[in-house]
Specification:
- The protein is an all-alpha fold.
- The chain has one domain.
- The chain contains 6 helices and no strands.
- Helix 2 packs across helix 4.
- The termini are far apart.
- 5% of the residues are buried.
- The mean pLDDT is 82.
């Protein structure tokens, strides 16, 4: 039960962070990607802050013998970068650049009931299904 509560609270904090930093606004994301136009570097600041928090807590978390909400740590194995990962990252990047949203912000702004969000999330679901198929 504590694991589910912590997962929920983590999601709420993440959603609040997306809202405060305005990363739920596709035009903000697209302005970040517009390097030769009216470039907006604020996403870089948000990403830098996220990496900074990760670097601080990652050392503390790894010092524990076992995770709080799981049986064991799941860390990437050396050499885990393969064709499937690169292809998935490429599709993710294209989708992000075309729409200006990734799954986190899309779920966060579902309350707007914009039809394109549901189409986007359906596409994400299809992509996850396709990724689960062993080729």
């Amino acid at each position: 039960m504590i694991g589910k509560l912590l997962t929920f609270l983590t999601g709420v904090v993440f959603a609040i962070g997306l809202g405060v930093s305005e990363m739920t606004r596709p035009e903000k994301i697209l302005a970040f990607l517009d390097l030769f136009g009216d470039w907006d570097p604020s996403l870089l600041i948000v990403m830098g802050a996220g990496v900074g928090v990760y670097l601080i807590f990652q050392k503390i978390i790894r010092a524990k013998l076992s995770p709080v909400c799981a049986v064991d740590y799941t860390l990437p194995k050396p050499g885990a970068i393969d064709k499937r990962l690169i292809l998935g990252a490429t599709f993710f990047g294209f989708g992000w650049g075309l729409l200006g949203l990734c799954p986190g912000p899309a779920v966060t702004i579902m309350s707007t009931l914009k039809p394109e969000l549901f189409l986007f999330l359906a596409s994400v679901g299809i992509g996850q299904y396709l990724a689960s198929i062993k080729l």
